[in-house]
Amino acid sequence: MIELDSVTVRLGGRDVVRDVSLRAEPGSWLALIGPNGAGKSSLLGAIAGRLRSSGRIAIDGRERRQLGRRGLARLLAIVPQSPLTPADMTVGEFVLLGRTPHLGYFGREGAADRHAAAHAVGRLELGRLASRRLGTLSGGERQRAVLARALAQRAPVLLLDEPTAALDVGRQQGVLELLADLHTEGGLTVVAAMHDLTLAGQYADRIALIDAGRLVGCGRPEDVLSEAVVARHYRATVRIADLGPAGRIVVPVRPAPHAAEVGR
Amino acid sequence: MSRWLLTACILLVASLLAGLAVGPVHVSALGIVEDALSHLPFLDAGTRLPRVEEAIVWDLRAPRVLLGALVGGMLALSGGAYQAVFRNPLADPYLLGAAAGAGLGATLAIAYGHGDDGLRPLAAFAGAAVAAAAAYLLGATAGVGRGTTTLLLAGVAIASFLTAAQTFVLQRNSDTVREVYSWILGQLDTAGSGDILLVAPYIAVSAAVILAHRRLLDVLRIGDEEASSLGVDVGRVRLIVLAAATVGTAAAISVCGLIGFVGIVVPHTVRLLAGASYRVVLPLSLLFGASFLVLADIVSRTVVSPAELPIGVVTAAVGAPFFAFVLRSGRWVGV
What we know:
By secondary structure, chain A is an alpha/beta fold. Chain A is built from ten helices and twelve strands. In chain A, α6 (169-185) links the parallel β7 (157-161) and β8. In chain A, α4 (111-123) packs across α5. Chain A is globular and about 65 Å long. Chain B has a single domain (63-329), classed as ABC transporter involved in vitamin B12 uptake, BtuC, CATH 1.10.3470.10. Chain B is 75% helix and 0% strand. Chain B has helices at residues 2-21, 29-38, 51-86, 98-112, 119-142, 149-172, 177-184, 193-212, 214-220, 224-229, 234-256, 262-274, 278-302, 311-329. Chain B is globular. Chain B starts with a helix and ends in a 6-residue tail after the last helix. The A-B interface holds A 48, 50, 68-74, 76, 78, 80, 83-89, 93-94, 97-98, 100-101, 103, 105-108, 135, 153 and B 212-213, 215-216, 218-219, 221-223, 225-233, 271, 275-277, 333-335.
């Protein structure tokens, strides 16, 4: 579980996240949505300890500040927006790095670590690419390798910043279905910044809408995602259709022409 | 890895033997092996070399060959470590001003040491260590949160300042120019067993520390933030590895002068041959670096025999074309 209480993040002399209080229950999927520059990535950075913040952040009931680096890494796995993937590292080597929090300072990976990495490679369908160098992969394949590294970490909480940005629609669905399986079967808690409102509405249990650094809405997708809310915070014209158990889809539509232009 | 490890070990043994055998007086490699065996206790094997050849091999050449192996291995290993820490393929062991500091130290010792040869290695060692420490402190305090860029810039600033100071001292003591440049171009010809005893402990400890960090240096390849999110204390790893690489480099250049290119050529060659993982690059750099400098020393003392070329000239003569080859072939391997 993740608890945020009055969290503020200050960057470059201004508050990019202001007084945000949130809660992600164990085994739930919380999607952070909001327009560009709203503060979603900064909030994830604060949870991950990458950005300094004020307020209280607790993970699994423990104050984040009291967790050491390794302790935090055992609880939180992170999939960043623009991960560094060394061109000459193989997929297998890269995924195995995910076991780092479970090793001592001078430790070496054992059979259990190799098994965990191989399992993650298998779940992301990277088996045939395991010996390929990252520099030879497509953007989508690299993205899956980054996800596999995070899964190999076997942390109970997964933070993702735009996890499907580089993937085609099929791979998007595949990755999100995998995450959905992990969070329902294995009790994985997922906190993901998501741009795609349809995917956020279909996969997340709860959605937190952030605008200008403030939390402006939080609840079930059907409570947060409305045409009026999207128009107000994204300045976008959309139609939202409810497909029942399949979730809600958000479709951008062209704004209606102004009356004056129509009459001309 | 194991294939390349075996190859590196065989090459090192062959290089050491060649280093002992080749010279103005040629001694057969087989004869050297038999002579070495005859010295082993409880093993009644091998026949001894004639007395003169034995003296040439063990008293004159062996210290030089051993020192070459130690220094070559250390410089190559330090180069690989610097490249890992800075994630920069052009990083070498002299990046934080160690060369400039050692140069100033040696120049001061030559100019004002009243002919005391024992002062030069100490002054070079101290100069290298102080320069690198100053660059690290400057870079770390000025660039909190800015990764390694400020460390690099601090190294450039410290090196420039110390080089200027060295030039000033040289200008005031122009009679020492020849001796200083002879040191700068690197030398193994004055090596004695005392030199080996002096530097071996530093090199052994430094090498052990760097090799123990090879897994963590692989983690650093994914960037400071990512490595930190995997629980690695990036600052601590960087400080320990840089300190070990700098102490080892300072020890090496304190007795041999500035031998360039080993720290770049060898790790890059290893990457081309065996892959970019530091679990492979570092141990192989140590072994191939040792072989490389022993072989370079053979060239330096035979190509214009009976005179000798400074060994730094030989390593640069190999290093520069190697770079040209790598750049033109497009086989550049990242760090």
